[in-house]
Structures are given as C-alpha cells and as structure tokens.
Amino acid sequence: MMETFWYCAVTLMLAVYAVLDGFDFGLGIVYPFVAKTDTERRIALAAIGPVWNGNEVWLIAAGGLLFFAFPKAYAAGFSGFYLALIIVLWLLIARGLALELRSHLNHTLWRQFWDVTFAGASMLLAVVFGAALGNLIRGMPLSQDGYFFVALWTNFMTGPDPGILDWFTILMGVTSVSVLAFHGANYLAMKTEGQLRGQACRAARLAGAAAAALAGLTLIAVLFVQPSFRLNYAAHPIGYVFPLIGLVALMAALGLRRRDRDAGAFYATSLLILTMLAGAAWGSYPNILIATNDPANSLTVTNATAGAYGMHVGLWWFLIGFGLIIAYQVCAHRAFWGKVQL
Amino acid sequence: MPSALLYDRLQFAFTSTFHYLFPQLTMGLALLLLYLRSRALATGDEQYHQASRFWTKIFALSFAFGVVTGIPLEFQFGTNWAKFSNFAGGVIGQVLAMEGMFAFFLESSFLGILLFGEKRFSQRVQWFAALMLFLGSWISGYFILATNAWMQHPVAYSVAPDGRLFVDSLSGLLTNPWLFWQYTHNMTAAVVTASFVMAALGAFYLLSGQHTAQARIFIRTGVVAGAIATVLMGFPTGHGNARQVFEHQPIKGAAFEGLFKTERGVGLLLIGQPNIETMTIDNPLIIPDALSVVVYDELYAEVKGLDAFPRSDWPDNLPLLYYSYHVMVGLGTILVSVMGLALLWLWRGRLFTANWLLWLLMLSVPFPYIATTAGWMTAEIGRQPWLVYGLLRTADGASPLVHSGNALFTLLGFLGIYSVLGLLFLFLVAQTIRHGPSGHPVPSEHA
Questions:
Q1: Total Cβ atoms within 10 A of residue A213
Q2: pLDDT (tens digit, 9 = 90+) per residue, B185-244?
Q3: What is the nearest CA distance from B55 to chain A, expressed in angstroms?
Q4: Would residue B343 count as lying in a domain?
C-alpha cells in the first residue's frame, strides 16, 4: 500500500517535471529556428528565465524521492546507466550556464556560442530523456543481487544484450523531441506577440504533426517490445483511461493549434505528457526496473523499498512539502504571468 | 586499491570540493544580503539599495554555478556509490529527499523573483524574497549536513535482515548530536567567506578610488560580520567539533595531531612533518600539555595515539589529513587576527585610510576558501577508511559494475568541464566588479 503510494508519488513528480521543464526544453529545441534576431532571442529566453530553474528542481526532487523510497532501484538504475547519466549531467551543466550567462556580455560571438549550446543541449537532453524512458519500458538484464550495466550502444537491437540506445529507445528519443518541441512552441506562442509568436505557431504546427505520427508509432512499438505492458493493461483495463485521455489531449492540441488558441494548445500538450508518463507507469507497475533475463530479478515496489517506518514518516513531510511546493511554484509562475516584457 | 575505486573517490572528492566553493559564498552572502536589504528598506538609503542590487548579482552568479555543479553530487550517490546508496539509502534518502522538497524549491522560486522582479515588485516583496532565499539556503545546508553527520556518526537506524539500513526515528536523524557543532561550524564558515569577499571588494574599490561610498558599506558590513564569525569559528564551534571528534572518532583526532603514541600530558603540535615510516614528527614545534587541556580540560589527561588502534582502521592518507587539519587551524588563526585588527581600526575610525590594512583585507580573500576546503578535507579524509563510520568501508560502497575505464572517462570529463567553469566564473565576477555597484538601477538586462 505505502509502496504503491510512493510509486505514484515519484511518477507524479517526474510527470510534473516533464511538463514543466518540458516546455523550456521544447523552447530550446525550436529556439534557433523561431527566434532569429537578438531581440527575439532575448524575448524567448525571458519567457523561461525566471522559472526554468524551478522547473528543473522537480527533477532533483523526484530523484531524491526515488532515492528515499526505493534506494535499491535508485542504486541499480543510476549505476547501470552510468555513462548516459553522467552525459545528462554535463548537458544540464552546459544548458544551465547557457541560460544564466548569455546576457552577461553584449558580444555577438559570446551570445552565438550560448545560443548554440542552449539549443543543442536542450535537443540532446530531450533525446536522452526519451531514450531513458524507453530503457525503463524495454527492461535490462539484471543480476540476482539487483545490479546491471548497459553500454551506450551495442547492436541497436532490443535483444538479450541491449545498449542504452537501440532502435526502440532512439524512436522514443525522437518522439520525445517532437512532443516537447510542440509543447515548448505552444508555450512560446502563449508568452509572446507579433512576429515571434507567428513563427512559434508555425513551428508548433510542424512539431505537432510530427509528434502525432511518432506517438502513434511509439505506442505500437511499446506493445511489441514489452509484452508485459499488454498483460498489465488486460488485467486492469481501467488503465486504458490514460492512453485514451492522451489521445483526446493530442487531438485537442492539434485542433486548438489550428485555431491558434495558444493557451489551450499548451494545456493540451501538458495533459498529453502527463498521460504518456502515467500510462507508462501503469504498464510497468509493480516493476521499477524490469529484468529481461529473469522476471524474478526485476526490482519492484516491494523488493526495492526503504522500510515501513521510513515510508510512513515520509508521508507527513511529503504532504506538507508538496503543499509548500505548489504554493511557491504558483507564486513564481503567477508573478511572471502574461506576455513577456523585456 | 582497485583503480575503479580510486577514480570513484577522486571524482567525488573533486566534484564536491569544486562545488562547495560556490555554496559557501552564497550561504554566507544570503545572510549579509538580507542585512543590506533590511537596512535599505528601513532607511530608504539609496546607497544600500545599490549595494543590495550589486551583491544580488554576485550572489546569482555564484548560485548558478553552485546549482549546476550541485546536481552531479546527488546523481553520483547512485552512479558511483551504488552499494552505499543501497546500504544507507533507507536512512539518508530521507534527508536528501527533504532537502529537495523543503529547500531547493524555496531557493529557486524566490531567486527568480529577486532577479527578474526588479521592475515588477515593491521593495517589500524583494526583501521578503531575500529572506526566503536566506532560509532556503540555510535549510538546504541543514539537510545536507544531516546526511554527512549521519555518515560521521550513524544514529537512528535499524538493520534489515538483508543487511541494509533503515531509519527508525526521523527526529533522531534530524537531531543527531554530531550535527549541532558541525552545522554551526560550517554555517559560520560560510559567513566568514562571504564577509571576507565583501570586505576585500570594498578594500579594492577604496584603494583604487572607485565607488568609495559603496566601498565603505562593504567594508563595514564585512568586517563586523567577519570579526564575529571568525571568533565563533574557533570558540565554541571549532572547539565543540574537536571534542566530539576525540570522543567518538579518536583515531581521527590522533591523526589530526600527528600523535602516533598514546601519552599523558600531550602537547599541541603547531608545525612539523609526519613521517609514516618511523612514526615520528620531523621538526616539531610544540606547546607542552596543551592538547590534553584543550580536549580534556586536564593537564595530564591521557590522549590515545594511533598505536592504540589497529592499522586497518587508520585513515588511509595520514599526512594529507594532518596537513588539512593544520592548514585549517592555522588559517583560522590568521583570519581571526586580520578581522580583529580591521575591527579595531574601524572602531577607532582609521580603517578607511589605513592602506596597509586595506591591502591585507584585499589579499586575504583566498584564505577563507582554502580554510573551508581544508576543513572539509579534514572531516572527510578523517572519516576514512569508513564511508559510514564504523558500519561500511569506503571500499565496499562503490558501484560494482562500473569499471575503471568508465570511471576514468567521466573523471577526466569533469576535470575538463570544471576547469572551463572556473575560468568562466572568474571572468564574469571580474566583469561584474568592473561594472561596479553604482550607476544603473536595473541589473543590466537579464534576458
């Protein structure tokens, strides 16, 4: 019971992270194509300037919560995906610095350098995060004592000796780029006016079409790569609400986009991302890390847990903390509501 | 030592040492900034407003570098120290998760308001944001030190059948007796760093004849805060720390002092080079009986030397530990003297014209950084060979399947990236200093 609560809590934190940092990643992906002049770029960056750091904290908090609730899964997962995670760290460093430092010097080369860094790191991180989700869905060969190690790539197949990158996880990565680009472009359109907004709308429509096609392809691939998901959904059909709502959200996002309803489209892509992650978590439960070699080696909410007392006492501070977080985050986002002013 | 373990250790040592150069400034500066903003709000004095805005810029720079170098630390618990995370996650996961929930959101939300809200919000709202920023950074320090205190002095845990540890009292974990002196000592050190930075920059401006009105505020604030904080570093916080080390980690204490043999009436070693082969100190300079008095309040008290303990439990780099400790204490003494002198001259109204003392303040700025780094090296090298004191050896904590080729690859990567980061930071701080505090009411343009 407690284990399930914490599984949901970690999923929720990650899903909120994906929605919030997702829009600033997405903005980074479309940034070089949409914002051409220095003024446009400054406006685009000002749209996320005060909030991106807070958005990223959801990742740190979700990681901390995973460590707290399922230390065994945290240990196995983080050491098993060693290189990918360290590369994520380096990209997060580069991206964070780009956002913080670009404005410090008024020199064309300085700004061009950080522009490329910001866009490139945003794009690569979107790929890696999508691929990471793909790895969790596909599973990995886990030893009996619960550790594994996968290389960055092997033969790009999902077979018994997979790498972090294979055809399936790359597909997930590309899907993630398109969905986040759609999401981020909607956000940028919502926050800007005039020509910049027009360019953001065009980018959003393009990314939206790609996202729709790729999301469909990914859904089919998931059923093919991880049969246990199908079983989970068949056993608990109520879970179909997630993909169904996801489908509705995607349709709504495309429809609202066509009618240039920026805010509506943005909320629809937010819902789409939430349901995609919730749907994956539903399919995986009770597994956190799925063993492809022997299902008995999988790390689940029960065998990776941190003990009954800790989980109970954690409930108290988590509920208080979560309330506070919502309050700060609402404050921070409300403070910068509306169109960007430089 | 298997080479993967060596690289894992070097990587954590390097990334955490580098990271802590930034938070020690931001945590201390958060307090001084709150003071400047309070003064500005109370008096409406434009000088204090300008000073607040200027130090907010420096704060934001240091904070940004602290954030980007901080994320790798939480990740590395899992990536490089998987067996430790599995073993102890049921305890320290609790405090690390609380840090994220209670401190990081607070800091990031209100820093955004402080940096981007110059035009949008009233002075009162900005003051409130500064207060929240101070609280957030000091709460963050509390939780991360609760983690370290537990690794130094494990409490409030029970052992599960599979050998993993689970917390059995959250209040016990948060009120670990070790934590009290460690937290007060560490946070005071952060104030020392920030005071020296503020006073040194004031001295620089005054000596070069720029922004002189601001410079006086910087010096006055830095010197008063620094004088108080440097005294508190030694007594009671440093003293309290040393006593609990001798009580609970006597091997570490013996290594601090280069005390190879158990003796009565032990002297305090000021300078000397430890020789591990002969187990003696070369060129010693000793105050007779002083160590016995400092630790046990008794002239002829017996102090246990390293010979009282099995060699397998000795810290694995005795000379480095010994030097770290002595550098910390030695620099601490210098810092308190510099601030003491400066305070005296300030009180007599002569500091602003005493060029030699301004030079001294300006050139002292690296020392609190070195002292703090040496202090942390003392704590952490002294904890060896344990990762969790008495419970888990460092050699048993690393990730089992991350081989040395991978660990060295990422270590080299961090070395390269952080070198660039260090240069960037210095360049941008120099840039901000050159711009100076007076003039533009709005931080140049934050977009």
A1: 12
A2: 999 999 999 999 999 999 999 999 999 999 999 999 999 999 999 999 998 999 999 999
A3: 15
A4: no
